[in-house]
Design brief:
With 163 residues, this protein is α+β, with helices and mostly antiparallel strands. Helices cover 36% and strands 10% of the residues. It has six helices and four strands; from the N terminus they run ααααββααββ. The strands form two sheets. The chain has a two-stranded antiparallel sheet with strand order 1-2. A two-stranded antiparallel sheet has the order 3-4. A hairpin with a 4-residue loop joins strand 1 and strand 2. Helix 2 packs across helix 3.
Length: 163
Amino acid sequence: MLGFMTAAPAEPRICSIARTLDIVGEKWALLAVREVFLGDRRFDEMVKRTGAPRDTLAARLRTLVNAGVLERRPYSEHPARFEYFLTEAGLDLYPVITTLRAWGDKYLTDGDGPPLVVEHKCDHELAARLVCQTCGEPVNPRDTRPVHRERHPGRLRRPAPTR
């Protein structure tokens, strides 16, 4: 007789990454955010620059507005037309966009170099770099460790040290 195995019930990790991906984890959502960072705030400009289907981009923009990442402001009444602006939450995605661009420039260019270079106000190329906010040292994944929050605010549960 064959025994049937039942799958263990899924227990997804409670995670801010997963919550964020629910909002911006789809290609057209991140490309819409990219376009607003680059100054293209109008729907038709975004369709042209991203190549997104109009209905898909409209749905992603609604999600971003409802999530508080973008703000929609009218610029024409007849016909009704809107521009999109980054909120504080949207502006906080700049390091994500910058790091994704840097990763693509490093691993996905075709030998011609990056298609777009971003300069800082000091007139030098902007490089994505993660540093510790306390000591200022560059961050290496090997130098970090997860610290889990308990269900009680303010309390941290550190994993047992590995030997």
